[in-house]
Amino acid sequence: MTPANILVTGGAGFIGVNFVRYLEANRPDCRITVLDSLTYAGNPQSLAGTRAELVVADIRDQQKVEALLQDREIDTLVHFAAESHVDRSIHGPAAFIETNIIGTMSLLAAARAVWLAGSGRPHRFHHVSTDEVFGTLAPGDPPFCETTPYAPNSPYAASKAGSDHLVRAWHHTYGLEVTTSNCSNNYGPYQFPEKLIPLFLLNALHGKPLPIYGDGQQVRDWLHVEDHCRGIEAVLSQGTVGEIYCIGGGAELANLTVIDTLCAAIDAAFASDPGLATRFPDAPAAHGRPSATLKTHVQDRPGHDRRYAIDCTRARSELGYAAQRDFAQGFAETLAWYLENEPWWRAVMDGSYRDWGERNYRDRS
Ligand code: NAD
Ligand code: DAU
Q1: Within a 13 Å sphere around the CA of 298, how many CA atoms are in the beta-carbon half?
Q2: What is the helix (H) or strand (E) element at residue 31, kind and residue range?
Q3: Which of 27, 188, 301, 331 would be a feasible disulfide site paired with 225, CB 3.0-4.6 Å?
């Protein structure tokens, strides 16, 4: 990747923030602008200490995006902005259609208007998507790869599938230089505590039930977010325009295995650091009881996909991509991050990060 002037949509969300931090550490020659509308999942505090400039705006505001691309001479757009939580898509699908489909179309239209005008200029539009577009796997099925047919099952997955098709069409029809990556379940620092790992971690610290959907035997391929960011950077620097790359963590685990790992790690942390019992007196581990006593089976998620898994052969052979963390290491680091960054998640839990965003950024959009 040559020095780039990058626009990161959704850069105040979980993976976007980690991508900004990854680029700053590994590609200090890049200039980064973040475009984010700061929904409930967008947290400007997560960008604190980075050099990225945050512009608060909606990806559906085509005029605004065109002005940004033009005025800042942006040559690379990495598109993370989305409604991303499956449970929310079941209860309120409309926002997913608006952001993930209409929003992606609006971004593509802006990119086409600015980058392909006249004789055109060098550019790249990278779209971040998900393995959920491929549907669900039976236990013995081969893992998803770039040629797996689409079969989205949730409103979220359907909206991401729609956005993938639009990106493909803008390449084939208009010649926009695009790449797409479809990745598996990310975990790591700065993840909003609605997703399995941060939700269960914070619930266990507060002595709240751990709500396991159905039998808990659903399988996900866990990918540390920094490995995902490394994969995206590899696609940007070495990927072929018009291609799709599947990025996974090589860590297929049943939810119950993840939950048992999480409970055991919390118990071990409390056993080796007596200060945790003072900080989190409601945790069972503070009283010598296993965190696993909080496990509670609840009604299954409607349409719940049973298994996801990713075959990274293309990313490995064409880009040299390989996940560098196994789940045990990645999870241990994630637990340590949440224990060390209590002010971050306290602000998320009590909503005060929203006020911070209003004070610091609303007037700069
Ligand atoms: P997230 O929900 O944590 O963050 C999404 C960000 O997008 C937020 O900052 C939010 O404010 C912003 N946003 C939402 N609507 C917007 C709009 N209309 N205009 C501008 N900004 C808007 O999501 P995430 O987990 O960081 O996921 C990032 C991307 O990666 C998404 O496209 C998601 O589909 C994809 N993905 C995520 C995972 C995962 O495990 N988290 C796995 C595969 C793919
Ligand atoms: O596979 C990639 C996808 O991973 C991304 O595209 C999505 O944006 C991301 O949210 C994630 O989707 P999942 O639905 O797999 O993630 P979630 O953390 O919501 O759930 C992981 C598994 O844990 C899933 O099988 C449902 C289960 N679960 C989840 C929650 C929140 C529970 O059993 N209880 C819970 O409370």
Answers
A1: 10
A2: strand 31-36
A3: 188
* pLDDT tens sequence across 45-65: 999 999 999 999 999 999 999
Cα(23)–Cα(30) distance, integer angstroms: 7
* Ligand 1 binding site (Cβ under 6 Å of any ligand atom): 9-10, 12-16, 36-39, 41-42, 58-60, 80-82, 84, 99, 103, 128, 130, 160, 183, 185-186, 192
Determine the Cα–Cα distance for residues 154 and 174; give it in Å rounded to an integer: 30
pLDDT tens for 150-199 read 999 999 999 999 999 999 999 999 999 999 999 999 999 999 999 999 99
Q: What is the DSSP letter of 182?
A: E
Beta bridge partners of 223: 186
**Structural domains in the chain?**
5-186+223-248+309-324+351-364 (3.40.50.720)
| pTM of the shown model | 0.97
Helical spans, DSSP H, in the chain: 14-26, 62-71, 86-91, 94-96, 104-115, 155-174, 196-205, 225-238, 255-272, 275-279, 313-319, 327-340, 342-350, 352-361
Distance CA 322, CA 315 (A): 8
**Are the C-beta atoms of residues 127 and 167 closer than 8 Å to each other?**
yes
- Ligand 2 center from residue 86 Cα (angstroms): 7
